Amino acid sequence: MVKIRCKVCGKELISTKINETVSCKCPNMATIYNMSSLRITAQDLGQVEVIEGLETSLLTKKKQDAKITSTEDIEWFEKRKTRKVSRSLLNSIEIR
Predict the structure, then answer these.
(1) 23 in helix, strand or coil?
(2) How far apart are CA 14 and CA 23, in angstroms?
C-alpha cells in the first residue's frame, strides 16, 4: 500500500492494488501508477508528500556505486573476450 498527499489540494491518495492508477485531478495532478513498478508523478513533486509505503531512505538516498559483479565474474568475462572459435568449427555446425 502506498499513501501520498498532494499539498496543493490536500487530498490523500491511496493505492492498494497492482494495476491501479490513482490521481487527485487538481492542477498539480499528483498520480500513483502502481503497475509492475511503482511510479509517483506530479507537475511539481515538491508539492507531494509520501505518507507511507516507501522508505524515506529510498527517496533521499543518492545512487551509490554498488559492486554488482564479483571478481570471479570479471575474470570469466575477460577469458571469454579472448576466447577464439575456429571457423571450421562454425562451418561444421548444422543449422536446422
Answers:
(1) strand
(2) 9
Question: What is the C-alpha separation between 34 and 55, in angstroms, rounded?
Answer: 16
Q: Which three cell numbers stand for residue 58?
A: 529510498
The three-state (H, E, C) secondary structure of 1-29, written as one string:
CEEEEECCCCCEEEECCCCEEEECCCCCC
User: Would you say the pTM of this structure is higher than 0.85?
Assistant: no
Q: Note the pLDDT tens digit of each residue in 42-85.
A: 999 999 998 887 765 455 444 444 456 678 878 888 887 777 66
Residue with cell 555446425: 93
**What are the two backbone dihedrals, phi and then psi, of residue 41, each rounded to the nearest 5 degrees?**
-130, 160
Domain coordinates in residue numbering, the chain: 2-60
3-state SS, residue 38: strand
